[in-house]
Amino acid sequence: MALAAKRLAPRASLAVLILAAQLADVMWPVLVALGIEQVRIDPGNTAFTPLDFVAYPYSHSLLLLVVWGLVLGVLTRTHVGGRAAIPLIAGLVVSHWVLDWITHRPDMPLFPGGPHLGLGLWNSVPWTLAVELVMFAAGTWIYVGITRAKDAVGRWGFFTLVAFLLLAYLANLRSVPPSVTALYTASMVGVLMVAGWAWWADRHRAVAS
After folding, report:
1. Residue 101: how many CA atoms within 13 Å on its side-chain side?
2. Closest among 98, 135, 113, 107 to 46, alpha carbons compared
3. Cα 128 vs. chain centroid, distance in angstroms?
């Protein structure tokens, strides 16, 4: 979603777009570390992931993601494209809930204390791979189609980022974190590393005229 959004917000850094699309997962490990939200390692919870998302009403509920999306849109508007970009940033934030609703079992809250929804795509590994890899490929194709490398960093920095994301995704298949602490620590480090890498590569690329 973040890669494809570059077409609609060419002034925006790819790092900002990624942080918007992943804002739920940026907040989630912090809230888990603070004991405000809970996750349990439960191999077999779904075919695709060993995690049982016990409670994450503040980082992953639809209502609060709308709120966080509007807040992030206002905070980043001058770096993205003015007021007109606020709906785009908010939409990226909310898109995380929509995509999680498709993949998760019914554990996605509409609002804190409200009903939980989920279509359960993660119960099928082949279908999950088909849907998510096609989406990733489409986003990459759109981004590459509207940007060009200004130098070697722009070329190889971006494509090594894509390779890293793909390898990390495949490496996580059926992997079981050793502990919740390791899970939220790796999540924090990972999102910061990817955002920094995206910022570095994107600033060495230009929007094609």
Report:
1. 12
2. 107
3. 16
CA distance between the termini of the chain: 22
Gap between the Cα atoms of 79 and 43, Å rounded: 42
Amino acid at 141: W
* CA dihedral (21, 110, 184, 125) positive or negative: negative
In Å, how far are 12, 16, 76, 96, 171 from 84, measured between CA atoms?
12, 16, 11, 21, 38
- Report angle CA 159, 190, 122 to the nearest 5 degrees: 90
pLDDT digits (tens, 9 = 90+) for 39-54: 999 998 999 999 999 9
Q: What is the Cα–Cα distance from 191 to 25, expressed in whole angstroms?
A: 8
